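User: Can you predict the 3D structure for this chain?
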Amino acid sequence: MNQGLHDGRMNQGLHDGRMNQGLQDGRKIRQIREEHDLSIGELATRLGIKPQSLSNIEWNNKPAGAALAIEIARELGVTLGDIAPGLVTKLAADLQLPAEVIALTPHGGSEPKTNGTEAA
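Assistant: Here is the predicted structure, written as structure tokens:
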């Protein structure tokens, strides 16, 4: 068993952003959010964070932790690999798993979540 997973150090890194330093593409997060016609405030509310925090992530001023990056991908209906390919590579190496396993769509579907204004 990976010692980092066993003693909680890996888990801590998943939440505080240390593992994700420079491994996400904030511009891609912003682009996908805008393609879904979501305001920064709407997405931040869905994520349970402040809009300024999301803005900092989108402008690459502050990294999202792995757990938040996964939630962002879920809310945008994309894979983690779409918004944080470097994080996928890092997690795969740390967990000794194939990157394809980590890069799967977290919510198990392929349909993006919407803001509810699209016509049926």
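The chain has one domain: 3-102. Residues 66-76 form the longest helix (11 residues).
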